[in-house]
Amino acid sequence: WDETHFGKMGSYYINRTFFFDVHPPLGKMLIGLVGYLSGYDGTFPFQKPGDRYEQHNYVGMRGVRLYRLFCAFLGSCLVPFAYLTVLELSKSLPAALLTAFVLIFDTGCITLSQYILLDPILMFFLMGAVLSMVKCNSCADRPFSASWWFWLSLTGVNLAGAMGVKFVGLFVVLLVGLNTVYDLWDLLGNLSLSLVMFGKHLLARVLCLILLPLALYTAIFAVHFTVLNKSGPGDGFFSSAFQSQLIGNNLHNVSVPE
């Protein structure tokens, strides 16, 4: 059922048809983009679960059997992400290999990664954020180095990605936030560190973990409203002034008073 739901929304992006959904747009936007790049024309109706795709090119959006494209590829990335995270935390190769082994043979993870769903995209950004956070923590002895800035910035990018797919991404924002508070509290208690240097640490985290994710999250919606410029099933949820901007709407180009 969910594949029917989100596959249809991918088609809406390809056809630039405005729609409304409870989730933020990044996941569906990426599904539509990959479908478009792989040759899908957005004409499949996605009316009910189990409909045959026939001649429609769905491979780009959905990874089946030997295909490791997009959702399947992102689901596959969870294994090395988990391996690297555990290896960094435990410094134990057996522990990291066991973690990777468990995920490789997890049928739920395999199944979720086969279909046009938001779950593998969400988990990719969630685990990416955790890995980036752990890697950034490992660079604590060389702050403001290139690798430190890279992992801190990548953490912010992954936070925006997780929140941009589903609001459940707030949980990884909370995790990174608690880690950051602990880190800053530890730095504040370091008497050998000047207040100026502490201020630089604080500013770097505000820049990479607050301002950068907010900017990216806002940009996602800017792209969403720019691409979806044609009237569609989501019109009724919005004001008459907004509907007047949609091509094909009954109110298109009508002057609507405030």
From TrEMBL:
Xref: InterPro entries: ArnT-like_N, PMT-like
Cellular location(s): Endomembrane system
Keyword terms of this UniProt record: Glycosyltransferase, Membrane, Transferase, Transmembrane, Transmembrane helix
Ranges where the ArnT-like N-terminal domain occurs: 1-229
GO biological process, one term: protein O-linked glycosylation
Membrane-spanning intervals of the chain: 66-86, 93-115, 149-182, 202-223
GO annotations of cellular component type: endomembrane system; membrane
Topological type in the membrane: Multi-pass membrane protein
Keyword presence, Repeat: no
Pathway the protein acts in: Protein modification; protein glycosylation
Pfam family, one: PMT
GO molecular function terms listed in the Swiss-Prot or TrEMBL record: mannosyltransferase activity
Similarity comment: family membership: Belongs to the glycosyltransferase 39 family.
Name the record gives this protein: Protein O-mannosyl-transferase 2
UniProt lineage: Eukaryota, Metazoa, Chordata, Craniata, Vertebrata
